[in-house]
Amino acid sequence: MEWKKINRYVLYLLSLFIISLGVSLSIKANLGTSPLICLPYVCSLISNLSVGVVILIFTFFYIIIQILLLGKGFKKRQYLQFLIGSIFSFFVDFSLMIVNFVNPAGYLNQFLLLLFSCLVVAIGLLLEIQTEVVYLPADGVIVAIEKGIFKGKAFRRHVNGYYGSYFVSNIFRLSWGSS
């Protein structure tokens, strides 16, 4: 394996860790998370499982949806999502342990931490996209919906909006039912 390829995979793993760190910081800010992590986070609160374990469960669910939607169009390379999702799940739990001491006092500090977490996630995503290795499973579902249902007709921006709305509405239902 050539060094350029090895560096690409190392950069990809680093990007996953950076994204997980940003996710953990947003959880610690306690003002909300992105729609894709929101549902696993709320489920972890309800089930008393760690966020990483719930993300791992969702990872398998997301990949199964992709396989069902794409059928033979699901490229063999995308099976790496099982490994990537497992690593990302571990990284989320690990980074939550690292930032365990972070407990912002007051709304302003929480808000600043949330903004910082968004910056950290953005940096991680920028690195992830540049490596072109494989989608994170939650992102892969969006691509699969676009290709499988809309047959690749530039509906991604609509799918992202509906997908986010779907998760947010489920969060309200889960939160309402658990209180």
Structure explained in plain terms:
- There is one protein chain.
- By secondary structure, the protein is mostly helical.
- It contains seven helices and no strands.
- The protein has helices at residues 3-29, 35-47, 51-70, 80-98, 107-131, 137-148, 156-178.
- The mean pLDDT is 83.
- InterPro entries: YczE/YyaS-like.
- Keywords: Membrane, Transmembrane, Transmembrane helix.
- It holds the Pfam family DUF6198.
Question: How would you sum up this structure in a few lines?
Answer:
The protein is 78% helix and 0% strand.
Task: List strands and helices in order, with pairings.
Layout lengths: L2 H27 L5 H13 L3 H20 L9 H19 L8 H25 L5 H12 L7 H23 L1
Keywords: Membrane, Transmembrane, Transmembrane helix
InterPro entries: YczE/YyaS-like
